[in-house]
Design goal:
The protein is mainly alpha-helical and about 500 residues long. Helices cover about 65% and strands about 0% of the residues. The protein has a single domain, classed as Hydantoin permease (Orthogonal Bundle), CATH 1.10.4160.10. The protein has a two-stranded antiparallel sheet with strand order 1-2.
Length: about 500
C-alpha cells in the first residue's frame, strides 16, 4: 500500500486525513485508489488451492452445520440430505464460476464491477447493501465465536466462571473479554490486507477439515459404528422431494452474498482453470464430505441416546478429554474467524473504500466496518428475532435481484465486453456514466424484483415458495433488466493493465 502523504510539502510524513495516491491520467480520484484499482494479470497469487481453502472453511461453518442438521428435524434422512446438498452444490458451482470469471477478466472488486450495470455512482447501492449485511453478520459471528471462547476459558481457568454471570449492556463481563479478543485478532489480520487473509484461509482450511473428520470419527467410535439413517418422522413421496429441492435452494441462498462478490477474491486468481478447479474441489466434493460428516454426527448421536444435536458444538462439549476438548474448541474458533474474514470482512471493506476512495483504503475501511460491527452490540441483535427477520431479511431480499441484474448485464447484454479504465472515469461522456452516474434501467429492474422477493419473505400465504425466493428474485432481476436494457449496441473491451496494481500491493 502506498503511504499517506501530504501534497503541499515534499515530506514523507504520514497524514491521517486523506489518501493522496498517484492517480493515472484519465482516472477520477473519486473513483480510484490502490485497493479499488484492477489487479495486474502477472503476479496474481490466488491458486486453485487458495480457492479451495475458502470453501474448506466456509462450507464447514457452524451455521451451515446447524442448517444441514435441521434438515433431519424436517424429516429428511441421510441420502435425502446428501441429495439436497449435492443439488445445491451443482447450482453453486455454476453460479460461482460465472461470478468468478468476471473477476479474472477485469481484475476489479465487486463495488467497481457493479459500476458496469449500475453506473459509477449507482454502484454504491449494491455495494452498500452487500456491505451492510456483512457488517451485521460480522458482529453476530464474532459474538457466536465468543461464546465458544467463553467455554474454553472457563475450562482452562475455572476461576473465571463468576465473570460469566456479571452482565454489562446485555453481555457478560467474560463475554466482553472474549468478544474483544476475537475482534482484535480479526482486525489485525485484515489490516495486513488481502494477502494476509489469503494466507490465513490457506492455513485454516486443512485444520478445519482434519478437525471435523476427526470429530466424525470420534462420533462413529462412540456409537459403536451404528448410525441412525432416518429421522424420527421421515417424509415420503412428493413432500420429500419438495423438501429436498427446497433444502437445495436454501443452500444456494445461504451463499447469495458470496456469489455476489466472489470477484473480490478471483480478481487475484492465477487463471480460469484455478477458479474452476478450486470451486470443483471446494464445492461439490467438499460439500459431499460436509454432508457425510453431518450424517455421521447426527445419526451417531441419534443412535446413542435418541437426541438430535443442534450444532457440532453439542458434540464438542461432550468430549471427555480436556486436551481434546481444548483442541476442538480452538479449531472452531479458527474456523469462525476464517469464515468471518472471507464472508463478512472483505465486502464491507471494499464497499466503504468505494464510498470514500480518497479517505479510506482497504485497511482503514476494514477497521471502520469492524468498529461498526462492534458498536451495534450484535448480541442484542442476534437475540432479537424481529431485528434478524425484518432487517436482515429486508436487506437480503435485494441480494438475489442484484445478482441477476449484474449477471444479465455482463453475460447477456455486454457479452463480457468491458472497458475497464472507463470504470474509473466520471466523465459525462463515459460509457458507465449513464444519467448522472446512475443507470436508471438497473434501478427499474431492481425495485420490482426486490419487492417481489420481500413478499416471499414476509407474506405467510407465500411461505411455501419462500425456500425458492432467492432463485425467483435473481431470475426476475435478470429478466426485468434484460427486457428493458438496450440491445444490439457495440461495447468497447479494454483491459485495465495501464492503471492496474500488483495483487499484493
Amino acid at each position: 500500500m502506498t503511504s499517506l502523504r501530504t501534497q503541499d510539502t515534499g515530506h514523507d510524513h504520514l497524514q491521517g486525513v486523506a489518501l493522496h495516491e498517484t492517480v493515472p491520467p484519465g482516472v477520477s480520484p473519486g473513483l480510484y485508489n490502490q485497493d479499488l484499482a484492477p489487479t495486474k494479470k502477472q503476479g496474481r497469487t490466488w491458486s486453485a488451492y487458495n480457492i479451495f481453502a475458502l470453501w474448506a472453511n466456509d462450507v464447514h461453518s457452524l451455521g451451515n452445520y446447524s442448517f444441514a442438521i435441521g434438515l433431519f428435524a424436517l424429516g429428511l434422512g441421510a441420502w435425502q440430505i446428501l441429495a439436497a446438498l449435492l443439488f445445491g452444490a451443482v447450482f453453486l458451482f455454476v453460479l460461482l464460476n460465472l461470478s468468478g470469471f468476471m473477476g479474472i477478466k477485469t481484475g476489479v472488486p465487486f463495488p467497481v464491477m457493479s459500476r458496469i450495470s449500475f453506473g459509477t455512482r449507482g454502484a454504491q447501492i449494491p455495494a452498500l447493501i452487500r456491505g451492510g449485511v456483512a457488517i451485521v453478520w460480522f458482529g453476530i459471528q464474532t459474538y457466536l465465536a465468543s461464546m465458544v471462547l467463553d467455554v474454553l476459558l472457563i475450562a482452562l481457568m475455572p476461576g473465571l466462571a463468576p465473570l460469566a454471570q456479571q452482565m454489562v449492556l446485555g453481555l457478560s463481563v467474560l463475554g466482553w473479554i472474549s468478544f474483544t479478543l476475537l475482534w482484535i485478532v480479526q482486525v489485525v489480520i485484515a489490516c495486513y490486507g488481502m494477502e494476509s487473509i489469503r494466507k490465513y484461509e490457506a492455513f485454516a482450511g486443512p485444520v478445519i477439515l482434519v478437525t471435523f473428520v476427526a470429530l466424525a470419527g470420534w462420533m462413529l467410535y462412540s456409537a459403536g459404528g451404528r448410525l441412525q439413517w432416518s429421522p424420527p418422522n421421515p417424509l415420503t413421496g412428493g413432500a420429500m422431494w419438495a423438501q429436498i429441492l427446497g433444502g437445495a435452494s436454501l443452500w444456494v441462498a445461504i451463499y447469495g452474498t458470496f456469489v455476489l462478490n466472489f470477484c473480490d477474491f478471483t480478481r487475484g486468481a492465477t487463471s480460469r482453470q484455478a477458479v474452476v478447479s478450486g470451486n470443483f474441489w471446494g464445492i461439490p466434493i467438499n460439500m459431499l464430505i460436509f454432508g457425510l460428516i453431518v450424517v455421521i454426527l447426527t445419526g451417531g448421536q441419534l443412535s446413542i441416546d435418541g437426541t438430535l444435536i443442534q450444532s457440532p458444538t453439542d458434540v464438542v462439549q461432550k468430549i471427555p478429554n480436556t486436551v481434546l476438548l481444548v483442541l476442538a474448541s480452538l479449531s472452531l474458533l479458527i474456523l469462525t474467524i476464517a469464515v468471518n474474514l472471507m464472508a463478512n470482512f472483505v465486502a464491507p471493506a471494499f464497499a466503504l473504500a468505494n464510498l470514500f476512495p480518497r479517505h479510506l483504503d482497504f485497511k482503514r475501511a476494514a477497521v471502520v466496518s469492524a468498529v461498526i460491527g462492534f458498536v451495534i452490540l450484535p448480541w442484542n441483535l442476534y437475540n432479537s428475532p424481529i431485528v434478524i427477520v425484518y432487517f436482515l431479511g429486508a436487506l437480503g431480499a435485494f441480494l438475489g435481484p442484484l445478482f441477476g441484474i449484474v449477471m444479465a448485464d455482463y453475460w447477456l447484454i455486454r457479452k463480457q465486453q468491458v472497458d475497464v479504465p472507463a470504470l474509473y472515469s466520471d466523465s459525462a461522456a463515459g460509457p458507465y456514466h449513464y444519467v448522472n452516474g446512475i443507470n436508471p434501467k438497473a434501478i427499474q429492474a431492481l425495485i420490482p424484483s426486490a419487492a417481489i422477493s420481500l413478499l416471499f419473505a414476509f407474506l405467510p400465504a407465500l411461505h411455501a415458495l419462500s425456500q425458492f425466493s432467492w432463485f425467483i428474485a435473481a431470475g426476475l432481476g435478470a429478466l426485468f433488466y434484460y427486457l428493458i436494457a438496450p440491445k444490439g449496441l457495440t461495447y468497447a473491451d479494454r483491459d485495465g493493465e495501464a492503471i492496474a496494481v500488483a495483487t499484493s500491493h
